[in-house]
Write a structure and sequence with these properties.
10-stranded mixed β-sheet, two-stranded antiparallel ribbon, alpha/beta, 12 strands
Length: 370
């Protein structure tokens, strides 16, 4: 009895150490749910790659390195496309249609001068009508607000960003605005399949009563088919104020084209910055994955010269791509490794408060792969 009394305090002291805690902890199975692929699902998939301009080649190369280190079942068909071209080359469009998946860096968009954005061209040509940006807190990355996990789904091919505008008479320009029922359907379908609890429609129907009114009608009609998902509406200017004051109230946000661009970038800034937010564009047949917010951002010359671009956003977008391709375990490994690097805080690029190069981030992610 005396020996038992002596042993218990010793065990308590020992159990306080991390090493002993690991020894005493019951062994847990590595996986409790098995992904059962169909025969042939493990065959390597071709992905069209557009490195793009500015920091694009740096961050797309980062993805290539990590995919190679993971032995992920994808291979890339790379095409040189730059923002100063008048059109996206037809062979690039055909490659994306054939492969059904594309990963791209930013394409520089000239301001003014009547030059069409290749980013917009690509979305319209492939009918990538839904843009998705996931803005969420990353453990270890301090932000003003906690508990942020917002998905912004915006119409991608109609409205102001569609470029449907013309000069009626000298000095008078008319821009056409449309809203589509299919973006409402996609937002609710996304929420349903991803166990999200609420969809918020962002609008300006108090002023644009016809166009934004039609958008709300579509959202309300679709909402009736998903009774388990809460639905509400918010005017875009109030939305921006609510985002910066209490962003955790939002879950899935569905918006017309222009509002979504503003909302997504605001949400990204709140959650940690555009350099860490993943995203993509999807249509009925194809998907293009890229940096979520400010997807056309090509960085500045200094970052390119110093090779200090942040690859995190595109790495996380690549994890989204792997899930889209039905390679969930590879997606989990990649996402977990990136989050470990962020959480440890030893390797960070300048936009996250560090001094690391792109390659140093890549090396750290590879070192943290399971």
């Amino acid at each position: 009895m005396a020996r038992r009394a002596l042993t218990l305090p010793i065990l308590k002291r020992l159990s306080g150490s991390p090493a002993t805690a690991r020894l005493l902890r019951p062994t847990q199975p590595a996986r409790t749910v098995t992904y059962m692929p169909r025969p042939g699902d493990g065959a390597p998939r071709a992905v069209t790659l557009i490195p793009g301009d500015g920091i694009g080649p740096l961050v797309t190369n980062a993805v290539e390195q990590v995919m190679s280190a993971m032995h992920a079942p994808v291979y890339f068909e790379s095409y040189e496309v730059h923002g100063d071209l008048k059109r996206v080359p037809e062979e690039v469009i055909e490659s994306i249609r054939k492969n059904k998946v594309c990963l791209k860096g930013g394409l520089r968009t000239p301001v003014g001068g009547g030059v069409s954005s290749l980013n917009v061209q690509l979305r319209k040509e492939l009918d990538l009508y839904a843009s998705l940006v996931n803005c969420f807190n990353l453990p270890g990355l301090p932000t003003r607000h906690e508990g942020v996990d917002i998905v912004v789904i915006r119409e991608n091919t109609e409205g102001e960003y569609s470029g449907l505008e013309h000069e009626v008479v000298p000095g008078v320009v008319e821009s056409l605005k449309f809203c589509s029922e299919r973006i409402a359907k996609y937002a609710f379908e996304y929420a349903y399949l991803n166990n999200r609890k609420k969809v918020t429609a962002v609008h300006k129907a108090n002023i644009m009563k016809l166009a934004d009114g039609l958008f709300l009608e579509s959202c309300r009609e679709v909402a009736t088919k998903y009774p388990s998902i809460k639905y509400n509406e918010i005017i875009v200017d109030n939305c921006c104020m609510q985002l910066v004051s209490k962003p955790e109230q939002f879950d899935v946000m569905v918006t017309p084209n222009l509002y979504g661009n503003l909302v997504a970038n605001t949400a990204a800034g709140i959650a940690g910055g555009t350099g860490v937010m993943p995203g993509g564009n999807v249509g009925a047949d194809t998907a293009v994955f890229e940096q979520g917010a400010s997807a056309g951002n090509v960085g500045n010359e200094k970052i390119v010269e110093q090779k200090k671009a942040n690859p995190v956003a595109l790495l996380l977008s690549s994890a989204m791509m792997l899930r889209h391709l039905q390679f969930p375990s590879f997606a989990d490994r990649l996402e977990t490794a990136v989050k470990r690097v962020i959480s440890e805080g030893k390797v960070r690029t300048k936009d996250l408060g560090g001094y690391s190069t792109t390659q140093e981030v890549v090396d750290a992610v590879i070192a943290n792969l399971d």
